[in-house]
Amino acid sequence: PLVPIEKIVSLCKRRGFVYPNSEIYGGVAGIYDFGPLGVELRNNIRRFWWWSMVQTHDNVVGIEGATITHPRVWEASGHVENFVDKLVDCKKCKRRFRTDHLDPVNLEQHKCPVCGGELTSEPRVFNLLMETYLGVVEGDRMKTYLRGEACQNIYLDYDNVLKSSRMQIPFGICQIGKAYRNEVTPGNFLFRQREFEQWDLQFFVHPTEMEKWFEYWKEYRFKWYQTILNHKDRLRFHAHGKDELAHYAKQAFDIEYRTILGWQEWEGIHWRQDWDLSRHSQYSGQDLSYVDPLTKEKYIPWIVETSGGVDRTFLNLLLDAYEEEPDPTGKDPRTVLRLHPWLAPVKVAVFPLQKNKEELVSTAKAIHKDLQRYMVSQYDDVAAIGRRYRRQDEIGTPFCVTVDFQTLEDQTVTIRERDGMTQQRIAISELTMYLLERVTW
Ligand code: ATP
């Protein structure tokens, strides 16, 4: 069954993954903060992406750009003119709808999909860029924008990277970073926010090699998502139809994932041709063409883009991992997050069987301290062992280690695994290696 978003919202708040931003002031729609477990999960997700996109590709490098840029960037990119949402309102129930999210039939008949009331016929148009001002002196202040998409920095830094990193075409630049949009219909928790994070690859190629690299990255990104999912059958490609394609794009695909919200975009694979570098050449006056060192051919590189969201990954992974299952011992159902061990915020929890036995406690604390050199470990001695397992299951901790009386005799511990709840004994001296092999990619 598909997990209701409310279950995730509630777990996130209760266990410290995600909080509403400025909650004590009543909150701000579409803005969230990440708590102690959320920040660990988020960092793991980011690091896994970075490792597989940048560190294991010899022809890809990374940058981290600022979230404020020269305002002309957003004229060149087309955002000042075209980055708009069109809204229609229901005259009866007062709900607002983005025209591109409405069923075309409802739009044509001006009929509200919720209450059946009449929709306004002329859509209202809103630009999504968030404005900000640089400088302090009135009159000298320059209006600019918080970046509406992170990838623009990659085009802006393209020439510097080329000259400073010894890259040659074909090569790519990656970035993970925040983007800001005045979304008119924020909602569904982390799915549509006003401040969120994107990961982008822009891969620069010779036009004759465009097709080949487009195919490579399309497949690579699909497999990447499959690797970290339990429900791999909920992942699919959506090919953009003629009416959805940008004028320069020969093809484009969304990687979609099915949740309670239906099939929704998770990442876009885009054929950007020479659009971005040509526009920035034109608007900045700097020629961004590439000269092939061997053939001396001069051309504007074409671009394959893969652009996804860190927050959608965070949300989709929780929706994918969450499960309530009957307890085999017949008590309350067990809530378990089947997060991939690579991504789980806590890798291992260490328990003394009893907290009033000094030797058990000191041995468990020593094991915990040692494991902390390599991974996130939690020490817990509160309540019965069963309750401690439950607490860890709910946050996705893949392994729990218990120090008991046998440990004091033979230096072995029990290791209990989250998904199958199986237990085995293992020597303390082998514990670190056993865990490292399972929690690192
Ligand atoms: P949509 O049509 O849903 O508004 P988009 O096509 O404008 O999305 P892109 O501009 O291609 O999205 O952004 C790339 C990725 O960034 C998306 O696939 C998504 O994962 C993420 N993303 C975009 N907008 C948001 C948002 N408001 N909140 C969270 N993530 C977002």
UniProtKB/TrEMBL annotation:
The gene is glyQS. The keyword Metal-binding does not apply. It comes from the Bacteria. It comes from Tengunoibacter tsumagoiensis. Belongs to the class-II aminoacyl-tRNA synthetase family. Gene3D superfamilies: Anticodon-binding domain (3.40.50.800), Bira Bifunctional Protein, Domain 2 (3.30.930.10). This is glycine--tRNA ligase. Keywords: Aminoacyl-tRNA synthetase, ATP-binding, Cytoplasm, Ligase, Nucleotide-binding, Protein biosynthesis. Its EC number is 6.1.1.14.
